[in-house]
Amino acid sequence: MSRNKFPPKPRYDPDTGPVYLYGLHTVRAALDNPGRDKRNLLATPNALARLAESGGVGRMKPVETTPRELDRLLGADAVHQGVALEVEPVSRFGLDDVRNPQLVVVLDQLTDPHNVGAILRTACAFGADAVVTTARHSPRETGVMAKAASGALDLVPMIEVRNLGDAIEKLKGRGLTVIGFDSEAPAPLRPRSDNVPMAIVLGAEGKGLRQRTRELCDDVVRLDMPGPIKSLNVSNAAAIALFAVTAGRPTA
């Protein structure tokens, strides 16, 4: 491993600067993704040893660093586990790139990278074929999003669309039933016993589904909360929704 330390620099701006992924699971998934353009690997000796145990670093030439230097680069709140990988944003897909989709998650202008990352992770766990986001009013790929996704950003196709309504219509045309989730919906969510292709649509934090999005759904349901708190974070709601709509599917 090269002993050249990267020069001291101010903390990077995740909204405008390069994309740094950090954390062992996140970096491992990016290293294993042949479609990911990887630029520079910064790692402590201990982190590099752990990466070597899980599959190595391919042709990357790591630059040795220290936890303190990574804290200075990424910010003290970043749980980097001694490793950061500078990358190009993951390649975006189109709906036509996903063949025979059975389960798709659609995000209607979600803006919080923590929530989008957590939903990606949950979507991956439930075997979703893709996650659809809007080109506007959705977060840029950042280390925060990738860390919350715990590698799912490199495992689940993320599709960015300019017109969400057209995308929903296309999913319906491909045979998917589209279920929207809204706290004001008349019908409660029930576990499904069928195995039909399904798209679930989740609205933005605080605002919920836009009117046009709601109108395009085949059905709109709510999550009933019997306890004193009547709402959930959207990433938690996504997990419940995915469990319910896949309840009737055969397990591998």
Strands, count: 11
Low-pLDDT stretches are 2-12
Strand-residue fraction? 15-25%
Number of domains: 2
The main sheet comes to:
7 strands, parallel
Provide the gyration radius in Å. 20 Å
Spatial order of the strands in the main sheet? 7-6-5-10-8-11-9
What is the approximate shape? elongated
Protein described:
By secondary structure, the protein is an alpha/beta fold. The chain has helices spanning 24-32, 45-53, 67-74, 113-125, 143-149, 164-173, 211-216, 234-245; strands at residues 19-22, 38-43, 63-64, 83-87, 103-108, 130-134, 158-161, 177-181, 187-188, 198-203, 219-222. A seven-stranded parallel β-sheet has the order 7-6-5-10-8-11-9, with helices on both faces. A four-stranded mixed β-sheet has the order 1-4-2-3, sandwiched between helices. Helix 4 (113-125) packs parallel to helix 5 and helix 4 (113-125) packs parallel to helix 8.
